Amino acid sequence: MAEHVWEPGDRLPSRAQIGQEYGVGENVVRRAQELLISQGVLEGRAGSGTYVAEPRQRVRMVRSSARERPDGSPFRADMKALGRQGDWESRTDAKVPAPADIAARLGIAEGDLCVRTTYEFLADGRPMQLSTSWEPYDLTGGTLVVLPEGGPHAGAGVVNRMAAIGVTVSHAVEQPEPRQATAEEASLLGIQKSALVTHIRRTYYSDQGRPVETADIVVPAAHCEIVYEIPINR
């Protein structure tokens, strides 16, 4: 039996081909690949196949109030510091009824309309972080900032966009929890379905105490480390 050597970036043959060559069932090949994906040896790419993973250093994600920037994205700044190109893709849906858990976080009634934006953050074109943001429509509806990624304040971030309509954001609360990736998250991030992720529930509050935005941020543990920077007021 010939011994194959696959280099980083190589696409593996189909499970059926591997199973036939080594005399095992496709389920055995699938479980072996899932194990190697969870260990970072292989990576799955949605609609493309399974590849030998390039060696990847864990990317540091800094969570800090000091990261709010008037002139750009903290994610892009983090990636630039690491010599990588940071970017994101987004999709916004206006007037989406708030599910019960989102309504509770925003202090509104279940079913009240929200603007929902989903993000896929990329480093050198590779998925690094997912986020789903919810904003109360009655706060931003009819203003120039109703679309987070559209209009004159596109991509300016929650703090700067809210300031443009006279709302001062005073603080944010973040609740990080470890869990396993869902099938959809795994497909988008190129990781195994059961791979460990950190799920951060973040909510921004105005100086009047009103929640103005809440988001679910999902970061793959194998690819990213999350660091919290705590400012000290003197």
Automatic annotation (TrEMBL):
Pfam families linked to this entry: GntR, UTRA
UniProt keyword Disulfide bond, yes or no: no
InterPro entries given in the database record: Bact_HTH_transcr_reg, Chorismate_lyase_/UTRA_dom_sf, Tscrpt_reg_HTH_GntR, UTRA, WH-like_DNA-bd_sf, WH_DNA-bd_sf
Gene3D superfamilies: Chorismate lyase-like, Winged helix-like DNA-binding domain superfamily/Winged helix DNA-binding domain
Key words, A-Z: DNA-binding, Transcription, Transcription regulation
Coiled-coil positions: none
The organism's place on the tree of life at top rank: Bacteria
Domain HTH gntR-type: 1-55
UniProt-recorded name of the protein: GntR family transcriptional regulator
Species of the source: Streptomyces plicatus
